Amino acid sequence: MILRPRPHWVHLLFVRRGSLVPRILSQQLFIFALSCAVVLLHGQLFHWKVTLTATPFSLMGVAFAIFLGFRINASYDRYWEARKLWGAVLVEARNLARQALNLATPRDTQRAFVLGLVGFATAMRNQLRARPRDTDLAGLLPMDLVERVRTARFAPALILLWLGEWLRERRTAGELDAIAAQQMEQSLNDLSGALGGCERIANTPLPFTYSVILHRSAYFYCMLLPFGLVDSIGIMTPLIVCFVSYTFFALEALSDEIDDPFGTMPNDLALDALVAGIDASLREMLGEPLPPAPVPDANYLLT
Amino acid sequence: MILRPRPHWVHLLFVRRGSLVPRILSQQLFIFALSCAVVLLHGQLFHWKVTLTATPFSLMGVAFAIFLGFRINASYDRYWEARKLWGAVLVEARNLARQALNLATPRDTQRAFVLGLVGFATAMRNQLRARPRDTDLAGLLPMDLVERVRTARFAPALILLWLGEWLRERRTAGELDAIAAQQMEQSLNDLSGALGGCERIANTPLPFTYSVILHRSAYFYCMLLPFGLVDSIGIMTPLIVCFVSYTFFALEALSDEIDDPFGTMPNDLALDALVAGIDASLREMLGEPLPPAPVPDANYLLT
Amino acid sequence: MILRPRPHWVHLLFVRRGSLVPRILSQQLFIFALSCAVVLLHGQLFHWKVTLTATPFSLMGVAFAIFLGFRINASYDRYWEARKLWGAVLVEARNLARQALNLATPRDTQRAFVLGLVGFATAMRNQLRARPRDTDLAGLLPMDLVERVRTARFAPALILLWLGEWLRERRTAGELDAIAAQQMEQSLNDLSGALGGCERIANTPLPFTYSVILHRSAYFYCMLLPFGLVDSIGIMTPLIVCFVSYTFFALEALSDEIDDPFGTMPNDLALDALVAGIDASLREMLGEPLPPAPVPDANYLLT
Amino acid sequence: MILRPRPHWVHLLFVRRGSLVPRILSQQLFIFALSCAVVLLHGQLFHWKVTLTATPFSLMGVAFAIFLGFRINASYDRYWEARKLWGAVLVEARNLARQALNLATPRDTQRAFVLGLVGFATAMRNQLRARPRDTDLAGLLPMDLVERVRTARFAPALILLWLGEWLRERRTAGELDAIAAQQMEQSLNDLSGALGGCERIANTPLPFTYSVILHRSAYFYCMLLPFGLVDSIGIMTPLIVCFVSYTFFALEALSDEIDDPFGTMPNDLALDALVAGIDASLREMLGEPLPPAPVPDANYLLT
Amino acid sequence: MILRPRPHWVHLLFVRRGSLVPRILSQQLFIFALSCAVVLLHGQLFHWKVTLTATPFSLMGVAFAIFLGFRINASYDRYWEARKLWGAVLVEARNLARQALNLATPRDTQRAFVLGLVGFATAMRNQLRARPRDTDLAGLLPMDLVERVRTARFAPALILLWLGEWLRERRTAGELDAIAAQQMEQSLNDLSGALGGCERIANTPLPFTYSVILHRSAYFYCMLLPFGLVDSIGIMTPLIVCFVSYTFFALEALSDEIDDPFGTMPNDLALDALVAGIDASLREMLGEPLPPAPVPDANYLLT
């Protein structure tokens, strides 16, 4: 995630970080070269004049903008839903910790449970980012559970099972009544719901065909555009075509980036910082010293 | 569902799988032939000049794009809601399994319940895909229930009834207190809600009239378009008309495809893989060996 | 509701059922006659030339399309919310039936409750479609309740009251513990919520002023359009004007139709079929023989 | 709320009630006079020709329509959310009444509680419409509570407090078990949620700046429009400008009206009728005679 | 938040407060100067004619308006969700107060809890506005808790922990049964959810890249526009360009303002007034005298 104070409006025109320019540079250069060639040749291809005017482009441009607008909308909804689900993990972890800390259970046992919640969030991040299943888990979960998790396909679900066992033991020990146990089980269900929601977003992309249609429309549109503009705006064609194609290509690339919000591209969610935040909040509730809060790096990136 | 890594931007322009070209080929060829004929005849029909300019097309084009944009939006909402409901089946199945595995019930009895949850998901897929009601159910449910399901109209609802009976038996056996029973009943209610939601999407299409109006607008628009463009862009008419009609026809076909997301067309939901994922996750919680995860076939299709 | 397999794309261009053509025929004929008159008179009214060009129409056309798009969106949301509420009735009726059938209550008593749920759905349909309050209720509810319902203003709420009394009797008889009773009360609350939601949609139309403004914009637009087009496209004017006005009028008429989704127009919800589905699903859970499933009539209509 | 059967399409073009014409008449007359002046002066201001063409208006028109479309959408969402919250009041009042009537409590005590629910809805309307806090409350609530409510700032919250006390008394009297009490408390929470939601809509308008920007865009656009059109459509300018400005001004005025849906303008919610409906439904459940249902007045208005 | 009665339509055209003119003045002056220069030089740059027409601007203008429309929508959704979350704090605080006041607990103890709820809301505001953690907390919370909060990173979560301890003490003292305790814990969970939601909105801005792309499109568009218009509308160019750029720049600035709705800019949420409202409502329930309601200042601003 890019986290920086909003620069001055002039500065914002020239900022390079977060502008996606590097990612779409080859496409842009291709379109620019094509536009220049069209201007030099006065729109002729092999001595044959390409008879295009701006008319069809205004027909197509609006339609395409509407469809691209929908794509951005759908991508952003996925991004924001993913963020909401991680927010729910923080909220439910806090709720479970609050209730566990108010039980008449030995402090050590409480602490194991609270750290287990951090372990759940960590394992969920590992699964979503396809890291080794047991990254950063040592110290948060019992050794035998870490072992089991190392080779599991659905590791966070196993940790939820373990958290459920902890509750049953408290219940058997008479430290937890049936009603409070139900409520904590409900919070486990909500954690399970957040996990399932993230798996859904990670496993089900936007329909591939939709991306194909939009991609083709955008590229053919920008490739034909210089032929349509050269007769009316002449030498300004490359500038305008690059401007239009930058907007379209960059928005398409951004949609593609936030479509799968669990990746590590600049605009993806900062899962590491989210896990660190959950860790810090629960440790503060335990009364333990806090690790420093994660800060964006020199490129304003938070991973 | 088409599941493939995003190809290079050049490759994406020419990819054939998932481009819907085969499905709309006849329409496209018809429009292309019509455009060529219009160019050859200079827009004359039986020696009578069709007096169309691009003006009315820009009027209609934007309106039509807005209405088509709405249709895509509504179709995608149906698709995504269906996916959410299947996600809820996974989540609630895991929750029920977690709670069942934490009961003081013999392992065999627990296993019957957990596999019954897989049976519910399987029967739900069978109903939504109109397969024989008992496909793949043997081994997951008791024989007499499979028998009953074979001829049932609402098979998954009967399996929920059976799961409810299992809970009552645990309750009678004193292995489950009233509070925990209520919570598990609640999860059954949520499974029932997911089932009802999928039945709703499957049984209630988008208003048919809406499809008719949009279909007509799209086709008449594209059929008249060559007459409107031939005077200004001449020989480029077929290219532009095919480009416009590809975008409109393909988006309409895609909307039609994801409208009913439970089918087996390329962009529909991969129900088989979803059921396999539920099966694997519950078996992992049982500590049993896992079947291999389903992978897309050579055409990147996951069914 | 119109329920038909999607016809071939050529067929879909000429289908008459569900095209709303009959409903907007008089408007369309008026616009067509006006366009022809304008062409014949070369845009002159009483020897005075109406000086309109296409320019203002492209200004207004897009704005109008956006506002109409919003209207369609809002109407469809009402339609789909209504469908969701009826889906909730099915789901909660199944949940209540499942829980009632798992009680240690005599079968006859259980059956009275389950049929009472069908009675609730039937009474809800009667209220929403303004049919006599007791249509089809005989055999589903006790005679004295049918009597009370016959003259009631809010009949389904009275049936919920009766279902609540049934629960209290089970509780008094010791067949239902407090926790399970609470959960079934919750399902009654959800039925009550679905009822209230449907009453809300039925009683609160879209703001009338909105319909007036859109209606006027659409009609004045189409009436002025021939004057704007006749100079540039001449004899093609009537065709184009009819095409534009068909799209606008038909979409406005469709919005008007699904606005109030409980009516009996072709695109309204098939409440009779929904009630029959609830009836069949509950009877299957009771183990009773099922009535045949409702099928669309020769016009593909399901009421 | 305007509640009338949909008039014939011809009639709808000329209907005056609900068309907002009176409210925006002065603006419309101003724009009409300006247009006529522009036509008479051939677009010259003090012998200086205003060099405007239609081009910039098509640039601005679409952008403005999109922003206005968003405003309408946001206003309608507020309107519909407010309606949903009032629907929730009806539903929860019915639920509480159903559960209270099924208690083993003397009829009189039950009746006091049920009428107290009507009192809550009445007090909520009084607060939202800024009427004297105790309007219509006599006979619904105990005298001392009416006294307290008269000078309260948040009257409905005090009535909820009283309803909670009633529950506690039932519980102390042994007529209500802990579980059922919890469920009724939950319904009180939901009433509290509906109250809080309505307060939120009433106290937080759409950002004022947004209204300012849109208002300015609309008015400057319509004031400049005659200069842009006079050269191409001449004497038709006033007609077209009035048409465009009617659509824009009326939609802006309508948005402004339904923005704050609790007022008493024609398109606002019919809070009086809603309260009367809650009153009638609860009295029917009590088995008491019903007051006549509220009907729209001669102007089709329901307050 | 700007809270003022809607001015007369003429007045609204010239209002300065809330028009964002001061904030975007430098940009506007730059664009105005550029336009004037273009008019004076007849579109020539260093004796070289910039060959731009209005055509590409209509292509880009619509696309840009659609993308800006989406941005406004997303920003407003964040604003409104934040307002809903604060509404939930009010509702749940009232619910908890109602239930606490109905317990058989000494009045003083009840009062400490109710004021603790106000303390939670105050601490939440302090965190969101980055004020010293303990601002205004004295008198609302016990001294040692204020001490702990002063140096905490997640202060409101610690206050929730303390509220949970209060509940446990009531439970241990036998003043609260398990069921009612669960319900109050649920309300604490909902407060925790509102807190987590606000942290989510505060910590996760809209993707930075999206702002960059839109900002660039808006500014390049407005800088090039005078070259495109000067040939057709001549001396009117600066007026029209300023009008277009005011709409685009002001909407972009407004989106930027309500994106982060917890700030102290004019259109941000009035957190101080919201906290004061929660304080007043809870004190009214306690039967204590109320502080005066916060009113907007001379500039109609409520902080």
From TrEMBL, chains A, B, C, D, E:
The keyword Transmembrane applies. The chain crosses the membrane at residues 20-42, 54-74, 218-246. It is found in: Cell membrane. Signal peptide: none annotated. Its main location: membrane. Keywords: Cell membrane, Ion transport, Membrane, Transmembrane, Transmembrane helix, Transport. The keyword Transferase does not apply. Pfam families: Bestrophin_2. It is a multi-pass membrane protein. InterPro entries: YneE/VCCN1/2-like (IPR044669). Belongs to the anion channel-forming bestrophin (TC 1.A.46) family. This is Bestrophin. It comes from Aromatoleum toluolicum.
